[in-house]
Amino acid sequence: MQPMPLLVVGSVAIDNVETPQARRDDLLGGSATHFSYAASFFTDVQLVGVVGTDWPAEHTKLLSDRGIDTSGLKVADGKTFRWTGRYESNMNDRETLDVQLNVFGEFNPVLSEKYRRTEYVFLANGVPALQMRVLDQVPGCRLAVADTMDLWIQTTHDDLMKLLHRLDGLVINDMEAKMLADTENLVLAGHRVRKLGPKFVIIKKGEHGAMFFSEHETYVMPAYPTEKVVDPTGAGDSFAGGMMGYLAEHDNFEPHSLKTAMAYGILVASFDVEGFGLERMQQISREDIEQRMTLYKKMLRF
Amino acid sequence: MQPMPLLVVGSVAIDNVETPQARRDDLLGGSATHFSYAASFFTDVQLVGVVGTDWPAEHTKLLSDRGIDTSGLKVADGKTFRWTGRYESNMNDRETLDVQLNVFGEFNPVLSEKYRRTEYVFLANGVPALQMRVLDQVPGCRLAVADTMDLWIQTTHDDLMKLLHRLDGLVINDMEAKMLADTENLVLAGHRVRKLGPKFVIIKKGEHGAMFFSEHETYVMPAYPTEKVVDPTGAGDSFAGGMMGYLAEHDNFEPHSLKTAMAYGILVASFDVEGFGLERMQQISREDIEQRMTLYKKMLRF
Questions:
Q1: pTM for this structure?
Q2: Measured on CA atoms in the order B286, B291, B297, B299, is the torsion positive or negative?
Q3: What is the ipTM metric for this complex?
């Protein structure tokens, strides 16, 4: 098999995270960052984002040392996107204490010639209009998957509807799916969102795993049970990174591959939450993921 | 294989249920009722409970027509236990609008000689002291599993602790597990509760499935994805009934059987919630359960 490169466009940020146990400042964060690192276990990743002049060079080095192509990470005048959040004791609900979009507020990605030829593309959470402008630049894209969030569902609904028709897959969390589909039943929500355009919809349920919906398939996969939840920030992005990484690695998105890819996404995310920022992912290798996969498959077999 | 009889002791009630879609009064309800019906797909069930003189004979007939042994269902002077509840739009959170314990408040089960020889026993939700008095009467019991609830965790904590040491298995919901273990992490909660005595603990997560904890095993199984949630009342009891029914049918509670049994519990519960009271279970046969099992196994295979 010939792994395919994977393009991700999204936020690159500096995070401050507070949990009931600890507080950590100046963490390397952002949706595209978590995605890239997670996907880098599987294939070559091309990261497109923007940071400010305050961005520490060591952060870029950390990513490029993983083999992530950071040539699409632009430095703009101003400060890097900053997010500060606090998790409740359930480690699921969180409060955003502060958001400073800074240079990310003016983010308008222009892809290089090389990047425009990418066939596997992930549009991390962002304004739908911007996500569509990225799609305009990848005419040969074979698998376009996007994330979105409650803010865009509420404030840019029309653009989001246009985007959905152009997607192969949409990855959203349970709250967003309920909002978008106007129902509390997640199975119904998944089918309704799929009918809005995407060929498949994945609903992320955090500690409860993820659900998959396509025209002919509906399934649920549980999260990997871990008692060590240190920082859930980026769990959804590392899920998407592991999933898309596996698909690009195998250059295949047939139903069976999608299911295996979802399992890999769940497992990479289960590592991601075991440390602050990218810390836990930095400690592991593909072999650790494969070992957990063996346990996960055993868990689901009876 | 020689199916073993299964004894259940618990509430038998008349329910009024209100959902966002409908309201239904005078439903055949109660924990032992849902359990019995669910277990009757697998083995012979002996139901021990109490009702009042207002109890409709057709309810008993409905159960005995299923082959459930209702000789342990006593009629006492007074009224039957009545419960009225209302479900929120998420069909998960519910409010108890009215409870009248009536004759169930004085419930003090005395088992017949035949019942005292039962080897598979389920203590449906009830006062821990009462659950222990039942255990005293089944000296040859090989598999004792109980349910409990937040009220007993809070008000009869010492008795509950004594009970836990006498159990093979405990089945509780996620909120109760968190309360009993004093942690928001369900994986940690499961292990902590197990260390309080039971050989295994099962945490019911409603629409998110169930988790299993023993000394050597931890696993999660997702719920069967259904868009038709009509009335969740009794889902946990039908889960336990399906699970215990399978174990008694096979007279085996080795790790592999426990896992398969948990899957059967999940599937019977997925039918139970598709109608009010016992209505949906009344429409199905063992074959329907087996068909859903085939789909469920396929869903978990990749």
A1: 0.94
A2: negative
A3: 0.91
